[in-house]
């Protein structure tokens, strides 16, 4: 396979968009945690504890998603320098590393999505409990 300076540059827009999406997720979740914590201080509830725990896991996952995404971008930039220096084999290895780092970031993103679905199920179970109490 032939690799040129433009090959690693192809990942820049994808990585940048992913990092923006990850940051938006982080900001949304951190605001939700603050709101739930305020609500919990006023009225402690097991459902709120479950939601906060789920959000805590998601925040850690997002931090790791961002770290691997940044490492992937860093590897791409390093790859460009290596290729510019004419080291084709080293450039291929570093580019492969950047792809692996991106795959790890995407895998963590998938895991975070699965946890968010669980969090929604917790919230919906709380709604069902409230609905059952109002009917009973």
Task: Describe the 3D structure.
The chain is an all-alpha fold and 136 residues long. It has four helices and no strands. The chain is 90% helix and 0% strand. The N and C termini lie far apart (68 Å). The radius of gyration is 21 Å and the shape is elongated. The longest helix has 48 residues. The protein has one domain.
In short:
With 136 residues, this protein is mostly helical. 24% of the residues are buried.
**Which range best describes the helical content: under 10%, 10-25%, 25-40%, 40-55%, 55-70% or over 70%?**
over 70%
The radius of gyration is 21 Å
Tally of structural domains:
1
In sequence order, what are the helices and strands, one letter per element? HHHH
What percentage of amino acids are in beta strands? under 5%
Number of strands: 0
Number of helices: 4
Q: What is the overall shape?
A: elongated
Low-confidence runs: none
Distance separating the two termini = 68 Å
Overall pLDDT level: 87
Strand count, sense and barrel status of the largest sheet are: none
The helix/strand class is mainly alpha
Essential attributes:
DUF2721; 4 helices; DUF2721 domain-containing protein; single chain; membrane; transmembrane; mainly alpha; transmembrane helix
List the helices and strands and how they pair.
Layout: H1 6-9, H2 11-42, H3 46-84, H4 88-135
Helix pairs in contact: 2-3, 3-4
């Amino acid at each position: 396979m032939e690799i040129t300076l433009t090959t690693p540059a192809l990942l820049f827009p994808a990585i940048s968009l992913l990092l923006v999406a990850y940051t938006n997720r982080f900001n949304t979740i951190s605001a939700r945690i603050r709101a739930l914590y305020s609500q919990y201080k006023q009225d402690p509830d097991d459902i709120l504890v479950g939601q906060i725990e789920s959000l805590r896991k998601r925040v850690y996952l997002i931090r790791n998603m961002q770290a691997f995404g940044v490492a992937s971008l860093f590897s791409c930039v390093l790859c460009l320098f290596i290729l510019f220096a004419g080291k084709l084999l080293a450039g291929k290895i570093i580019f492969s590393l950047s792809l692996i780092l991106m795959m790890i970031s995407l895998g963590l993103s998938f895991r975070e999505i699965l946890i968010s679905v669980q969090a929604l199920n917790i919230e919906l179970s709380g709604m069902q409990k409230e609905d059952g109490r109002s009917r009973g």
